[in-house]
Amino acid sequence: MPDVAHNNTITFPDGQSSWSALLKNADARIGEPDRFDGQRVVFVVDSMQQAFGAIIYGLTHGLDYGVVERHRVSPEVAGRFAENGVTLFDWAAVTVMGDAQHAGDTLEPGRVTVLTSGTTGLLKLIPHSWDTLNTFDRVAELPANTWFLPYQIGSYAWFQMVALGLFKPGQNLVCGDFNDLAASFETALHTGQITAISSTPTFWRHALMNIGFDLIQSAPLTSISMGGEIVDQAILDELGGIFPQAKIRHIYASSEAGAAIVVTDGKAGFDAKLTDPARAIGVKVEEDRLYIRSPYSNKADASGWVDTGDLVERRGDRFLFCGRAGNTMINVGGQKAFPPDIEAYLNAHPNVVWSQVTARRAPLMGNLPVAKVVLTKGADTTTAERDLTEYCSKGLAEYAVPRMWEFLDSVPMRASLKS
Amino acid sequence: MERQEILDTMNLVMTNKGREPITDETVATRDANFRSLDFSEVALRIETKLGRELTFDAAAMRNIDTVKDVLDFFEKATA
């Protein structure tokens, strides 16, 4: 594991700190780490500042640990932790919550527990270490950056960004406030210091609707990373137009497969050459299903491959993402319509900020595609349904044209920054 | 549901697709360019409006030939 970049700064809503200062405060608050002997502990925190304190404390003292926000700890979630032998520790009150659990043989010092609700909604504890979370370790030279950090505490994406700030000198973090992410992003942009951001397409669509265009365009961004959901050509083109100076990349990563595919050519999907077996990070596609073999993965079969459960489709010299296996295709009277394709087409319309296509049960055809759409400000909502139907009829198969439309006022965004 | 309301729903589907609205009940659905997908959409829109799923008589659905048949069908299904 590399050394901690102790002088990197972390900016919170109420001030700035460094890893050194955070460790000093954490040691003073929590005391000797032997109180956690024999325990797999998850620190329950109320703020980003507490979370960062817990991170550097656990890393420095080699704990088997993780962090979770207090509001996520329902009785069911607490039960889930207990089932896994996890002791919950209240960072603010400096005391164990509920009963201390004894990890016994399952204790793994150095393990970092990442939390994900995944697609099932059920909290999952994903075992990692700082080695598997430090996905930037292969980047030899990284220019100094100030990153806006929009992710939820304890998520895989959050840990990746924290690892970047921990181990890569010159990588400073500015934490977003999840109570009003757009407002905190706006505040951060006003400082003129944000040079990089890792987020999702939904985050950007949300920001572009809620923050003045001039302010966004004035940001001196040199590095934009996106992931977490399908990155379509429309958002790549839009950000490329706003930030011609920025290196825009989209990253395929998951909490189980790790970070595996980084695309920098400004195009959606990934180059089919990445499936070359000689590559260090393996990518293979079997029956349109994506498999990854990565040193950052935490779950693989005997041959090292992780079945991602994501579907891709070969188009020319690229593979495009088609969504998750099992819940992507809409069967319209025996014809297959794919929501990601329809959404990508809709998102390319100049009046569309965001779209989501789902199936509705319908007589005769079995299912019909229906769409939720957020229009650009000022777009004519009275003609939108007809205009978009006509637009889709020109570029999509008839069975793939959404049949009913719902127009939303804002981009819905979950805690994962996905929609 | 009133016959006129059903016809209005059919014509909303038609005009959204840039087609001429239907004015003659006796015309065949094929000649009016009213397709199976449109029939399914009209059913979905009616279900949404009524807030309940409709029960359809598959045999009656197979015998639909004219616009009048469609109107009769939905009139009966929503009764």
From TrEMBL, chain A:
EC number per UniProt: 6.2.1.3
Residue ranges annotated for the AMP-binding enzyme C-terminal domain, each copy included: 342-417
A GO molecular-function descriptor: long-chain fatty acid-CoA ligase activity
Residue ranges of domain AMP-dependent synthetase/ligase in the record: 115-296
Membrane topology classification: Peripheral membrane protein
Keywords: Ligase
SUPFAM superfamilies in UniProt: Acetyl-CoA synthetase-like
Protein name, entry field: Long-chain-fatty-acid--CoA ligase
Database matches in Pfam families: AMP-binding (PF00501), AMP-binding_C (PF13193)
Principal localisation: membrane
Classification via InterPro entries: AMP-bd_C (IPR025110), AMP-bd_C_sf (IPR045851), AMP-dep_synth/lig_dom (IPR000873), ANL_N_sf (IPR042099), ATP-dep_AMP-bd_enzyme (IPR050237)
Entry GO terms, CC: membrane
Compartments where found: Membrane
EC category: ligase
Pathway involvement of the protein, from the record: Lipid metabolism; fatty acid beta-oxidation
Ligase found in the keyword field: yes
UniProtKB/TrEMBL annotation, chain B:
SUPFAM superfamilies: ACP-like
Domain of life: Bacteria
Name of the protein in its database record: Acyl carrier protein
